């Protein structure tokens, strides 16, 4: 669904010098509708071009978006016009008892505020890609935008009391308003028109103005976009994590060999083979015969010894009974003997000979005979 049900929703004018003017809607502006507010006042500053002298708010707190504001004083003329245009995607209904208020940065006498509205598709809002304006006539053009369906709002104001204006042939008139019927240079008059069309450029011109002093013309093409989706805030329940004790991990030491152009040889542990000693054969030794000189022992005469007679007392032994003994079996724990490595032993050659009736071993140690 594109734009539809375009309608006016109220207008207010005044000539008293102050800084605000309010309007109450002629019918309720509903939630989801697009409301557009158009403001025309006397000049507030002597600046020609874009200015920031107007602001909009309503009594329900809806958000208002400024599209454009331009002032024309004709190079500092005594009189001039300031035009501005705002829009809001209504989130809180503005009823006939509520107000929409224009506030100016300085007091000004002649002021106009107008409200229009349009319906759009569900879940949609609006945006503006560009707009056109002119400070030299009662016409504005806009072009070179994307082809799609637009709601174009044309808005022209001048200093005069012109009451009969003719809209562009493609546009429908929504407002033809003036602040006074007197032919005064300070009087502000404006013309609001609109159309819905699919196009890429357009021009809006009002005609039959008898006097168009200090004109400001603005043309805004609104188009639909999908409404941004805002997810509701999520409240997360607090989570308490039980403490976790990590068992200490012992890493086995790793030895990394780092080589740069070297050959690394790893020597495996070696268990020496047992050494068997060859049996040693002793050469037989021939002892020279020894002649013993005969020895004469003188005879010895022993004196006779008389022993006294001994009398033995007989002993009677009581019989003894020996209790039998039972021995508990004993289990011997097996014993593992560590292997014994015998170091090789080199025996020096030895000689044996009979000397004086004795067998004597002789060894040669460091070239010397040792007994």
What would your notes on this structure say?
With 371 residues, the chain is mainly β. The protein contains no helices and 20 strands. The strands form 5 sheets. Strands 1-9-3-7-6-4 form a 6-stranded antiparallel β-sheet, with no helix packed on it. Strands 10, 11, 13, 14, 15 and 17 form a 6-stranded antiparallel β-sheet that branches. A hairpin with a 2-residue loop joins strand 18 and strand 19. The N and C termini lie far apart (134 Å).
Let me know the number of strands: 20
Low-confidence stretches: 258-267, 347-352, 364-370
Question: In percent terms, what proportion of residues is strand?
Answer: 35-45%
The biggest beta sheet, please?
A: 6 strands, antiparallel
Mean pLDDT: 79
Measured on Cα atoms, how large is the radius of gyration?
66 Å
Proportion of residues in helical segments:
under 10%
Number of helices: 0
End-to-end C-alpha gap: 134 Å
What order do the strands of the largest sheet run in, or round the barrel if closed?
1-9-3-7-6-4
Structural class: mainly beta
List the helices and strands and how they pair.
Blueprint: E1 4-14, E2 18-23, E3 34-42, E4 49-50, E5 54-58, E6 65-72, E7 81-89, E8 100-108, E9 111-119, E10 124-128, E11 132-134, E12 139-142, E13 148-159, E14 172-178, E15 188-199, E16 202-205, E17 213-226, E18 350-355, E19 358-365, E20 368-370
Antiparallel strand pairs: 1-9, 2-8, 3-7, 3-9, 4-6, 5-8, 6-7, 10-17, 11-17, 12-16, 13-15, 13-17, 14-15, 18-19, 19-20
């Amino acid at each position: 669904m594109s734009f539809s049900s375009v309608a006016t929703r109220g207008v207010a004018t005044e000539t008293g010098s102050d800084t605000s003017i309010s309007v109450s809607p002629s019918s309720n502006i509903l939630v989801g509708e697009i409301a557009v507010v158009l403001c025309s006042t006397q000049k507030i500053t002597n600046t020609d071009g874009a200015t920031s002298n107007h602001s909009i708010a309503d009594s329900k707190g809806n958000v208002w978006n400024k599209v454009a504001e331009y002032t024309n004083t004709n190079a500092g003329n005594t009189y001039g016009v300031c035009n501005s245009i705002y829009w809001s995607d209504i989130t809180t209904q503005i009823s006939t008892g509520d107000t929409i208020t224009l506030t100016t940065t300085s007091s000004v006498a002649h002021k106009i505020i107008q409200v229009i509205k349009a319906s759009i598709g569900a879940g949609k809002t609006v945006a503006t890609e560009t707009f056109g304006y002119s400070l030299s006539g009662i016409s504005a053009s806009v072009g070179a935008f994307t082809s799609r369906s637009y709601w174009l709002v044309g808005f022209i104001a001048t200093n005069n009391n012109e009451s009969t204006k003719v809209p562009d042939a493609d546009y429908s008139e929504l407002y033809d308003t003036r602040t006074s019927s007197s032919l005064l240079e300070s009087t502000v008059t404006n013309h609001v028109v609109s159309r819905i069309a699919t196009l890429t450029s357009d021009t809006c011109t009002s005609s039959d103005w008898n006097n168009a002093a200090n004109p400001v013309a603005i043309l805004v093409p609104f188009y639909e976009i999908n409404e941004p989706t805002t997810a509701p805030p999520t409240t997360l329940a607090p989570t308490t994590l039980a403490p976790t004790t990590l068992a200490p991990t012992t890493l086995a030491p790793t030895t990394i060999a780092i080589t740069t152009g070297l050959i690394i040889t790893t020597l495996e542990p070696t268990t020496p083979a047992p050494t068997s000693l060859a049996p040693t054969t002793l050469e037989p030794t021939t002892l020279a015969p020894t002649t013993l000189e005969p020895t004469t022992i003188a005879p010895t005469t022993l004196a006779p010894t008389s022993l006294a007679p001994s009398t033995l007392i007989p002993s009677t032994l009581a019989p003894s009974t020996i209790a039998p003994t039972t021995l508990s079996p004993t289990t011997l724990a097996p014993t593992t003997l560590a292997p014994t490595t015998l170091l090789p032993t080199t025996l020096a050659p030895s000689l044996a000979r009979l000397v004086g009736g004795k067998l004597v071993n002789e060894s040669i140690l460091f070239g010397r005979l040792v007994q």
